[in-house]
Every structure is written in structure tokens, then in C-alpha cells.
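Crash report, auto-generated. Payload:
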Amino acid sequence: MKARIFLLFFALLSTSCMQHTVVTSGQQTVKSFIINPTNQWNLIPKQFSFAGLPAWTVDGGSLNSLIFISEISHGDTLLPSTNDKKLDTYDKDMLPNEIIEFIESTLLIYTDAKITNRGTLRPIKIGVDQGFEFEFEFVKNDEVPRKAYIAAASKNEMLHLILFQATKIHYYGHLIDDVKNIISSAVIKT
Amino acid sequence: MLVIPSASYSFERLTPEFGSNYAPNLAKTEAGLWMEFSDHENQLKNSPVRINDIDLDGYLKEVLCKLALEYCEDVRVYVIRNPYFNASMAPNGMMQVHTGFLLRVENEAQLASVLGHEIGHFLKRHSIKSMEDTNTKSSFFAFLSLGVVGAVASGNMNADFGRSTLDLSNLILTGSIFSYSRDNEREADKYGIQLLNDAKLDINAAKEIWVNLIEEKKAASEDITAGSYFYATHPDPGERINNLESHAIALNRTSQTSIIKNKETYWEKISPILPIALKDELNLRQFEQTEYLFKKLLNNNVSLGLIHFYLGELYRLKEIEEEEHLIKEHYNKATEYEDYPAEVHRSLGLIDYKARNYPEAKGHFNKYLNMKPDAHDKEMIEFYINTGA
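Recovered output after restart:
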């Protein structure tokens, strides 16, 4: 029991001094993406990032974050499955509309996020690969309106996507151009 | 306080613990709790998760007032976009009902039985009593600290996908910090059926909800209490059914009970929330349970185009070879009704596109865009049209 209490206190204390590593501008490789940010971001430590995924932030993860989800194979869930949350699985033949349904369902089950407004879904190129982009507004139980932008492509029968989310007020508008610059520099490794 | 069904059981009326227009004494803990919830209620009024439909809100208030009578103005009801079956009552009279609850209710009498149950919690001051209980207070603080640390220790899955949801009022509302005791729940059930009877609505509606929920869970081969905080903290649904039945029998003996259900009015009023409620339900990917629910909804003869569309969507997402014929069957059936959504053609187009039936796909995509020229995915659909061989 004492050991558990110690562990819990340690975990609590560690939140106050967690270290973010600076991600400098210039070419970076994050999972299957090679990208070229022109501004400085911060790497969120894995234990504090969304589902333990590689993620960057400018002002702190709760205000804005750029999350890299890649190499999702046929039959995989988008996020690591937990025992109590049965998530939808990826199908290599999914079309962009179906991938959006897959993401929407995953976010609802995993984080209770509900899409409140759908922006444009349109085709884009990520490097040489045909992909798509999608913008949406969502809300979780904390009722803070948020906006998100997804750029994704299927390559070698695997799904690769970058998800940017931020509070609708200020942070989304403040960073979306920078995010789109990063996407336009992105290449998916073969 | 388990009620054993017997011929001798007589229904003793419950009475409120305070008068209407009650406000707590500022010197008491209760006043602080009310203030906390008043703040939350002010935020909730403009929250994106609140479904703000004037007609529906007016209807819910009307039903609420039939039950609460002189307490009508002391209770406010809000519809919350949430696919899970739940309704809750805060100590200050703020009631929340989920879209997932409204989707599962079959008529006004069933709705009233749950609103009555929540009013019962309010009139008996159950949440205040729970807070005032010493044991609950200590577990409250223990839970709060464990909850914060637990979220971090478990990898904090929400940490950079929006603020953590660990704010006080939210946790109380979701029942995560303290729940009403099972005796409180039984008392609220009894109060609910009493108010239902006074409002001259069918008192059997109270148990019907639980019978339906058990059937829905059975369809998914699930134990109703498994993995659900709501069911785990409430009396066993079987016990509730027995108790509600006993109350109904006793009331039948002593008063003139009604069989009024007001089914048509109910469905007319909730039809505006159906598109969002059906989509959220499907997004939970609980296919067996959802299939049972959607098929049941067909019996209400309301929004049939929409419900057939979502049944088609369900079979498309389920991807079971033996059920493949049901996809187009339901989409085609949907188009027989005036209220069918344009998305029927988009889904048919996607199926044909993947099967490389490009001319058919193009036809459906064009129909979709004709019906919905400002569709958010217009550019993507045009891409499919242009890339089809």
C-alpha cells in the first residue's frame, strides 16, 4: 500500500516538472514522416502525450498539439486499444470518407470527443502520395470548443496521418498556417 | 429497502423535504455546492454539448411541470449530446438528459418516469445527504487525488487532446465522485412512479425502460452491469423491475391508474435530435446492441427514411458477408420516404466506387451533390467522380 501511495505521489509530482524537448526548425523524421518545420516546436514527453504517440506542442499539450499517427496496418486500431474500449479497426481499402468515419468513431470512444462542425474534406498530396485533408470542430466533456485539422494518406496499405488540435479560440488560428506549412513539406517514407 | 412483491404491500406516499422556491442557507455547505452547480449551469447553457432546441426544451419542461407541479420552476432540464443512456440531477435543480437516453425512451410516460425519478432525488435532497455523509466526504477527497494521479500514471490518454476532464462538477455529474446510495435510488424510483401516477400517465412505463435496456444488452450478449459505472452504482435492474412492479400493483389497488403513454407526441418532439443521436450511437460501434435499438425504432413509424439509412450504415460498417444484402436493402428502403438523407446516395456511391462500378457510383455521387450542393466533402466526391475510370 505504501509503495502504491509513493508511486502515485511520484507521478503527481512529476507532472509539475515534466521536461519538453525543443524541436528546432529544419528537417525532422517522426515515425514514417519526413518534415521540415520552419518554426520551433516542443516534443511532448511520451508519458504525457495523447495515447503515448509522438506529439509536438508550442504552448502546452492542452492548448495545442500536433500528433503523428503512422503505419496503421489493415486490422489495426488507430490508437492503442484499452481493455474497456473496443475500437474500430482500419481497412486498407477505406476511402477518405470512410477513414474520417473511422477517426470520428475512435475519438468518440477513446476520448468522448464529439464532432460539432465539419469543415472541408478535400484531396491533397502529401509528398508524392495522394491523400486528403479534413478540418473539424469538436468538444469533449470539459466543453471547451476545439478545432482540429487532419492530413492523411494511405501508402503501402498503411494509414499515415498528422492530427493538429487546438482550442478554437486563439490557438487554432494562431498555428494552423504553420501546421499547413509542415504538411506541405511532409514526405511519407517508403 | 428491498420491496418484496406481496399482496399486503401498500404504497405509502413520499413527501418533499423542502418547499418550492427553496434556497439554501448561505452559512451551510449546501450553499457552496449550489453555487458550484450554478456556475456549471451557466456554462452549460452555452456549451457546445448542449442540444439547444426550443421546441424540445419546451416539451421537456411541459412534461417536467406535469410531474413537479409547484416545484416546476425549481428544476431546469437540459438535453446533452451524449450517446450513453443517462440522466442526472444536480443539487440545485439542474437536470441533464442524454441524447442516448432520449433515443431509448419509447413514449412520454417512459420519459416522465425518469424525469420523475430525478425530481425524486431533488425533492429528497439525496446529493446533499451524500455530501454530508462523513464517509463519502473522505472518499470524495481520496478519489479526487487518486483520480488526478491515476490519469497521469495511466499514460494520461487525454493530456494533449484537450484539457483533462477532472473538473469537480463534471465528475459529480458523471457520478464518478459520489453516487447516490442504492437506497436513494430505490426511493427516487418510488417517487418517480408516484409522480407518474399523479400526472395520470401509465405507471407501467417505469419498469418498461428497464425491461427494454436488459433486452438491448442481451442482444449484444452482454451483462447489463458489465463495464458500466452507471449500472454498477445503481440497484440491479432486475430488482428495480420487481420493485417498480410492486409499486404499480399497490397503486392500482388504491387509485385509478392510467394507461396514457403519449407515444406520438414524444416522437414528434424528439425527431429533430434523431440525426445526431443515431450517428453518435453508430459511432460507438456496438453493432449488435445498436442493431437491436435501430430495428426497434422502426416500430415508432417516425423518421423512417433516416432510420433505414442508419441501418444500412450499420450493415456497411459491420462488414459481415452474410448481411451484405441488407446494406442496399435498407438504403433503397430509405429512399421510399420523404425524409431520407442525401447521404444515402453518398454511401451507395462509395460502395459502387470500391466495387469499381464507376458509372453507378458517378450517378449516386451526382445525386448526393444535387441534393446537398454545399456538402462539406464536395471536393472529395468530385475527386471520386473524376478518378472513376
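Post-recovery validation: The mean pLDDT of chain B is 85.
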